[in-house]
């Protein structure tokens, strides 16, 4: 056996450099880059290995470990899980900063490889700087925190272990059923050890994500259930997009006259004006999709984990409705007594099409979907129409940006008030041009994801929409994009604090408290000049006062040569209406009559919930 002597860190990096994947018929690196902040836990060994291959495996320096890992997740979303970025940090706080991002990737079933330094296996210098000691268990380090939010976790305590560990990590990240973040802890003394690695370990390897075909018996049961349906409805989730099944699912819905709605992760499966489309479903969804869900007798759920924002906390459907769930993950497919079709979305829809024959939903049901969607579009026109109000609403701002966006421009947002507003008001012009991270609802995802998405596809411009609260929480990657030359357009809607959670607080009977700046313990409310702040980080900026100015500013931003930030004051109290119910905890007893009334309403809502698992 031919061997090559390398340190563990060098061998790890060489392995990553020799993994490939196929993207649109072209051979591409499986790991196209590394986001890194170096500290004593990864700078002397891992950085030495990365420096030597920087022309093959480029390293990008972020400003915060959490945002680096979020950028890697934004990259994974933009490539629809076909390529994987690496994020590496030192030990202690640097490593722990990536835990939140791991939660985002785990919840959303997205791949990212997280590498963190670790304490010494030999324990000779213990306790080292930034080590958190556990008196009763010296094997525990802060990296054990990743176990709760990763699909694969390992700590390398001997250099030979990467020979078995790295292929397993890759397999997990590429498996549609298990897809999620992989974490590998790299103790400092093990990184430095030289070992005679077999050369075969570094042979170039081309990976393809497996496509599991559905079980024939399950598919037959699904076909029988669908053929009995008089009022079927398709819910398209993120898994449909990641599988590349959007064209087949769109054609299936149109051919068989089945109305199609989308989850938050699934928005962008079809264009807004697709003949079968009836809008987004759920709490931040449309009246049209929710009306269809309430009357549907069979729901075909494709690639969705059916979170509460999709199901209206399981009040959106008739108690008698049947579910057919197509999902690569067995856990998701078997929820709520569904007819479970465990398999890849593309393969499953293809085989379902072959098996279902000439079945077609009734013309009355298909037409009802179109009529409901027409009413919804008319309502959107009204919400987005400019008025003489001094401060524009989110709907109006989103409408202007949507109008000016190019067909392939990617819209990115996450937590706060914007997810509901873009879900309702953003009319998708081309498939796979919408990214709203709401599985983990992670404030701070947006700007970092814009950096990753711009890196993933330089041919299109990410348009990132955030509120002032998110900007204040994590804005440093504005600077990262300027440094690296990856352009985004950032729209900052300043509504004076955490407006959407203030809305929920008020709706459940508590007056404004600690959410809007004016309701916080501050000497006086004041405004941040976000344009000047972003300008100080090297971005081009413009503050606009009106919707007309915003439209002109977006057109200007599309012509610039670097990240461009536009800011506008927006209304904190006007929201696009919704009609789905949400289950949240409300105090059963309170001195406030408004809280007691809200608690009573909450109990009434719970009586409508569908019982399931």
Describe the structure.
- This protein has 613 residues and is α/β, with parallel strands linked by helices.
- The chain has three domains: 3-207, Thiamin diphosphate (ThDP)-binding fold, Pyr/PP domains (Rossmann fold); 216-375, 3-Layer(aba) Sandwich (Rossmann fold), CATH 3.40.50.1220; 385-569, Thiamin diphosphate (ThDP)-binding fold, Pyr/PP domains (Rossmann fold), CATH 3.40.50.
- The protein is 37% helix and 17% strand.
- The radius of gyration is 25 Å and the shape is globular.
- The strands form five sheets. It has a six-stranded parallel sheet, with helices on both faces. The chain has a six-stranded parallel sheet with strand order 14-13-12-15-16-17, with helices on both faces.
- It has 24 helices and 23 strands.
- Residues 219-352 form the Thiamine pyrophosphate enzyme central domain.
Task: Output the keywords.
613 residues; alpha/beta; Rossmann fold; six-stranded parallel beta sheet; acetolactate synthase activity; flavin adenine dinucleotide binding
- Whole-number tally of structural domains: 3
Describe the strand arrangement of the main beta sheet, using strand numbers. Answer: 5-4-6-7-9-8
Terminal Cα separation, in Å?
53 Å
Strand content: 15-25%
Percent of residues in helices = 25-40%
What is the number of beta strands? 23
CATH architecture of the largest domain: 3-Layer(aba) Sandwich
Structural class: alpha/beta
How many strands, what sense, and barrel or not for the largest sheet? 6 strands, parallel
Task: Find the CATH topology of the largest domain.
Answer: Rossmann fold
Q: Low-confidence stretches at least 5 residues in length (pLDDT < 50)?
A: none
Q: Whole-number average pLDDT?
A: 96
CATH superfamily of the largest domain: Thiamin diphosphate (ThDP)-binding fold, Pyr/PP domains
CATH level 1 class label of the largest domain: Alpha Beta
- Basic shape: globular
Query: How large is the radius of gyration?
Result: 25 Å
Number of helices: 24
Organism: Rhizobium grahamii
Domain Thiamine pyrophosphate enzyme N-terminal TPP-binding: 37-130
InterPro entries: DHS-like_NAD/FAD-binding_dom (IPR029035), Myo_inos_IolD (IPR030817), THDP-binding (IPR029061), Thiamin_PyroP_enz_cen_dom (IPR012000), Thiamin_PyroP_enz_TPP-bd_dom (IPR012001), TPP_enz (IPR045229), TPP_enzyme_TPP-bd (IPR011766)
EC number: 3.7.1.22
